[in-house]
TrEMBL record:
PROSITE patterns found in the cross-reference section: CYTOCHROME_P450
Keyword Oxidoreductase: yes
Enzyme class label: oxidoreductase
Annotated segments matching region Disordered: 18-38, 67-86
Gene3D superfamilies named among the record's database cross-references: Cytochrome P450
This protein's UniProt keywords: Heme, Iron, Metal-binding, Monooxygenase, Oxidoreductase
EC number: 1.14.-.-
Molecular-function annotations in GO: oxidoreductase activity
Identification of the protein by name: Cytochrome P450
Similarity field: Belongs to the cytochrome P450 family.
C-alpha cells in the first residue's frame, strides 16, 4: 500500500483532441498493476483520486465507504449553483434508506416491460424529427435537430408533460448546454416542474408524475417536493447523457465507415451495436465519489474525506477487460462496461437510454443512408464533457 506525494501533481485531463474519445493525458490502456488509481489536481486546485482501471472502478462504485453525495465538501464535482432554494439530495446523491426509498418509488417506471411498451412512441418521436430535417433539406445540425430534441421529448412523454408545453420544455433543455444560460434554464425548468406538479394534483393526467402523485405521495412514501426534485433529476440525468451519446455515437460511426456499413446493412443486432458504442464512446465519463472511511484499492490508500473520480471512459478501455479495447468493433459480443455505473447508484434509466439509442440510430441510418459530415471533424467542438455543440451533416 502506498500513498501519492502531493508535489507537482498532474492535472486532471480535460482537453479532448477527439470528441468521442477520453480527454488527452489519460493512459491509453492499463496493464495489470500499473497506474489504475492516481492522485491528480482538479481544475479548481484541489486534489482528488482518478480511477482508470475497470476492476478498481467497479469495486469503488459498490463500496459503501464512498458516498455519491455531491453536497459533501470533499466532492470533486460539487453541485453547480442554481437560482432557487437548495433541496435535500435526490436519488443520485442520496444515500442509505433515503436513496432506497426514492429509488423504490421510481423503479417500476423503468422496467423492461414498461420501456418496451414505450418503444412505439419513441420511434414516432424520432421519425417526426427526421421528417422535419428531411423536409428542410441538407445541410442540417444533427444536434439541435435530432440529438437534443429526441431525448427531451422522450422525457416529456415519460413524465407526462402536456403537449402544448413541450416547446418550452425542449427550449430550456437545450439552453442547459449553454454555460451562459444554464443556471437560468435550470431555474426555469425547476419552476415549471413545480407548477406542473401542482396542476396535476388538481387535474391528473398520464405520466410518471401522475403515478407518483396518485400512489407514492398518497401513501406518504414521498412528498410533493420530492416529486419535483426527482422529475428534475430524471430530466438532467436522462436527457444530457443520451443526447450526447446520439451525437457522439453518430460521429464515431461516420468516422469508421466500414463499421457504419455493417450497421446500415441490417445484419447486426442493434442492441449489440449500442452496447459497443456505450463502451467506446466517451460522453461525460466521470463519476464523483467521496471516501467517508479509509479505503485501499489498487495499491493506494484513499483517506477519509478524499475526493474520487471514477473515469468510466478510460476504465471501459481497460485491456484486462477485453481484447483490443482501444478499437471500436460493432461486431464485438456485448460485454461489460461502467457507462451506467455500478452498485446501488447504477443508472435507473438505463433501459430507457438503450431503447432511445436503438430507436434513434435505427431511424437515422435507415432513413438517411447517405448521411455524411458537412464539415471536417476537426472543426467540431464539445460541450462541457457531455456531447457536441453542433454536428453539421448533409446527405
Amino acid at each position: 500500500m502506498t500513498e501519492h506525494t502531493t508535489d507537482a501533481l498532474p492535472g486532471l485531463p480535460t482537453v479532448k483532441s477527439c470528441p468521442y474519445l477520453p480527454a488527452d493525458g489519460y493512459r491509453p490502456s492499463r496493464r495489470p498493476g500499473g497506474g489504475a488509481v492516481t492522485k491528480v489536481r482538479l481544475p479548481d486546485g484541489r486534489e482528488a483520486w482518478a480511477v482508470t482501471g475497470y476492476a478498481e472502478g467497479r469495486a469503488l462504485l459498490a463500496d459503501p465507504r464512498l458516498t455519491a453525495d455531491r453536497t459533501h465538501p470533499g466532492s470533486p464535482l460539487p453541485l453547480p449553483d442554481v437560482p432557487g432554494p437548495r433541496t435535500r439530495p435526490m436519488l443520485l446523491g442520496a444515500e442509505g434508506k433515503e436513496h432506497q426509498r426514492q429509488r423504490r418509488a421510481l423503479i417500476s417506471a423503468f422496467t423492461v416491460r414498461r420501456i418496451t411498451a414505450l418503444r412505439p412512441r419513441l420511434e414516432q418521436l424520432a421519425n417526426d424529427r427526421l421528417d422535419t430535417l428531411l423536409a428542410a433539406g441538407p445541410p442540417a445540425d444533427l444536434v439541435s435537430g435530432f440529438a437534443l430534441p429526441v431525448p427531451s421529448l422522450a422525457i416529456c412523454e415519460l413524465l407526462g408533460v402536456p403537449y402544448e408545453d413541450r416547446a418550452f420544455f425542449e427550449r430550456q433543455a437545450r439552453l442547459r448546454h449553454d454555460p451562459e444560460h444554464a443556471p437560468q434554464a435550470m431555474a426555469e425548468l425547476s419552476g415549471y416542474l413545480d407548477g406542473l406538479v401542482r396542476a396535476k394534483q388538481s387535474a391528473p393526467g398520464d405520466g410518471l408524475i401522475d403515478d407518483l402523485l396518485a400512489h407514492q405521495v398518497k401513501q406518504g412514501t414521498i412528498d410533493r417536493d420530492e416529486v419535483v426534485g426527482l422529475a428534475l433529476v430524471l430530466l438532467i440525468a436522462g436527457h444530457v447523457t443520451t443526447s450526447g451519446m446520439i451525437s457522439l455515437g453518430t460521429l464515431a460511426l461516420l468516422e469508421h465507415p466500414e463499421q457504419l456499413a455493417a450497421v446500415r446493412s441490417g445484419t447486426l443486432a442493434l442492441p449489440g451495436v449500442v452496447e459497443e458504442l456505450l463502451r467506446y464512446v466517451s460522453s461525460e465519463g466521470l463519476l464523483p465519489r467521496v471516501a467517508i472511511e479509509d479505503v485501499e484499492v489498487g495499491g493506494r490508500l484513499i483517506r477519509e474525506g478524499d475526493g474520487v473520480l471514477i473515469v468510466t471512459s478510460v476504465a471501459n478501455r481497460d485491456e484486462t477487460l477485453l481484447d483490443r479495447p482501444l478499437e471500436l468493433d460493432v461486431h464485438r459480443p456485448a460485454g461489460q462496461h461502467l457507462t451506467f455505473g455500478h452498485g446501488i447508484h447504477q443508472c435507473l434509466g438505463q433501459n430507457l437510454a438503450r431503447a432511445e439509442l436503438e430507436t434513434a440510430f435505427r431511424a437515422l441510418f435507415t432513413r438517411i443512408p447517405s448521411l455524411t459530415l458537412a464539415v471536417p471533424a476537426g472543426e467540431l467542438t464539445t460541450t462541457r464533457g457531455s456531447g457536441l455543440t453542433s454536428l453539421p451533416v448533409t446527405w
